[in-house]
Amino acid sequence: MSSPEIPFANYQYEIYLRGSMMNQRPRRPLDWQRLEEQAAATLARGPWGYIAGGAGRGDTMRANQAAFDRWALSPRMLRDVAQRSTARTVLGTPLPAPVLLAPIGVQTLAHPDGELATARASARTGVPLVTSSASSFTFEEIAEASGDTPRWYQLYWPKDRTIATSFIRRAEAAGYSALVVTLDTWLLGWRPMDLDEGFLPFLWGEGNVNYLQDPAFRALLAAPPEEDMQAAIGQFAFQFSNPAVTWEDLAFLRETTELPIVLKGILRADDARLAAEHGVDGVIVSNHGGRQVDGAIGALAALPEVVDAVGDRLEVLFDSGIRGGSDALKALALGARAVLLGRPYMWGLATGGEDGVVDVVRSLLAELDLAMALTGHRTIDDVDRSALVATP
Ligand SMILES: Cc1cc2nc3c(=O)[nH]c(=O)nc-3n(C[C@H](O)[C@H](O)[C@H](O)COP(=O)(O)O)c2cc1C
Ligand SMILES: O=C(O)C(=O)c1ccccc1
């Protein structure tokens, strides 16, 4: 088990103590709504719209929030919660809490230190990050910065299999311990905020570094990127995604790596069963934070049926809409093995770099510990659907 620099239980008392004894207030709002407002004020229009924005009219983003409102926690009393633990093993990796940082590309949009800051925050908190294929630093550099904390790698499956294999080998060599394959973003969703700004951050400059120095990618180019950048970028844009992939192609990944494989973007029981039949180790119930299909089901609304269909065969993780400890607890109560935090840590990054991400992560873990305790649970494994009631 990685040991976090800072224990998160009693975090709130540390904050009160510092405030009352030393007159030191937190440097940034701990309320995520206000943190988001501060990030909005910090970031330029293009990056803000890209990170905050959703697809279409934003219906799916709203559905993600509404899905949490349909469940309420139903606290139990007098259950001795003096000794507690939020620890849980996820895909064979012991973690301080069932929480990871969701793969988010091109993080230099939020802060110049980008993924390196996030990775250092991961090292300090023991909460793993999932490094995106479209990272603004190479996944080797990010691995290095994340220290001893476990880390996972997210693959945007390229067209050319030699590049896919090269990425997977690089991830294995850099110590990534699971392969997350994103299924919902072969094509970018219709994102009006980005379209209004003409903002596509990952073509020139950001998000392509993993390609430009990859030996398998370079072998496909007539001239190296240093000599013909335009052609290299064209090839990157062509290679980046492969919308023709089907379930049959998963055999290639299964044969290519021993790492646990997690499919990200599952929203239905039948797809979850197909995932199980194709020998993957986990799925992430997710609608990509409402950035892909507007009008799609709120992610939490899809979680119970996926857990019922495959929960005994593989690990079901969850993201899209987690905005605090109670949200995490609700998803865990519905059977998620772990949850991934998305946009909120980008608000920490935008407003405070590495420290900002640490603050957001510590807050989430502290709030989760409290929500667990105050609803009458000593461990995450004690939490099940009996912790919830449907709201009228
Ligand atoms: C700015 C941004 C970039 C993202 N980039 C990736 C990515 O590179 N790969 C990926 O699988 N998901 C990506 N996602 C989706 C997240 O992993 C996650 O599914 C989503 O943020 C969850 O929704 P939430 O942030 O509203 O909780 C991105 C999300 C955002 C906001
Ligand atoms: O913007 C996104 O949601 C995303 O997943 C992505 C896609 C391509 C490059 C970087 C991030």
From TrEMBL:
Cofactor(s), names only, from the UniProt record: FMN
Any Pfam family matching the protein: FMN_dh
Keywords tagged on the record: Flavoprotein, FMN, Oxidoreductase
Catalytic residue positions: 288
Binding site for FMN: 103-105, 154, 182, 264, 286, 319-323, 342-343
GO molecular-function term, one example from the UniProt record: FMN binding
Keyword Cytoplasm: no
Domain FMN hydroxy acid dehydrogenase per the UniProt entry, residue ranges: 24-392
Binding-site positions, glyoxylate: 50, 132, 156, 191, 288, 291
Keyword Heme: no
Record-stated family: Belongs to the FMN-dependent alpha-hydroxy acid dehydrogenase family.
Entry protein name: Alpha-hydroxy-acid oxidizing enzyme
